[in-house]
Prior knowledge:
Blueprint lengths: L3 H22 L1 E9 L2 E9 L6 E5 L2 E6 L7 E7 L4 E11 L2 E8 L2 E2 H11 E8 L2 E8 L4 E4 L2 E2 L3 E5 L2 E8 L2 E9 L7 E7 L2 E3 L5
Antiparallel strand pairs: 1-2, 2-3, 3-4, 5-6, 6-7, 7-8, 9-10, 10-11, 11-12, 13-14, 14-15, 15-16, 16-17
Amino acid sequence: MASREEITVCEDEVRSRYSHLEKMTDLVAVWEVALSDGVHKIEFEHGTTSGKRVVYVDGKEEIRKEWMFKLVGKETFPVGVSKTKATINIDAVSGFAYEYTLEINGKSLKKYMENRSKTTNTWVLSLGGTDYRVVLEKDTMDVWCNGRKMETAGEFVEDGTETHFSVDDHSCCIKAVSSGKRKEGIIHTLIVDDREIPEAVE
Length: 202
């Protein structure tokens, strides 16, 4: 016959397994948002019976509301180092079906990412076995690497400008050269240790 201790352990195991399942059944949406300081994962739980709303950013709970009588609405929260404003809109589609959309700085995620591809350049590279994600914000000329804003030095050169910074003893330079075409504007190139790095598409 099983001892009382064994039965308790079994009950606890079942309960923890069940509570984990219960926790995950309300997960209704997951988004990946590429910002200058990195790619952030946003998860949203919505209990359509209790009205519960939970928002996780990179696995960390940002918002938790247990009982909401209104099942539609919105939740706004900050994302990343620069505290970018994100809003999840909850809309009823029909009956008990809901649609969840994410807005970043007041724009739909799709529009935000399209706009972002015009205002930033992103490069992904590996140096000495470590992966780096370098982002240039074209409007401010700020350079970010793996979530940190880099110390940079800019200089004018014959054919444009160069922005210098270093990553783990590697000298890096972003060259800005006019394309000569009005539609293309300025072309930004990342050079690390005299090697040109291809731009990443996010």
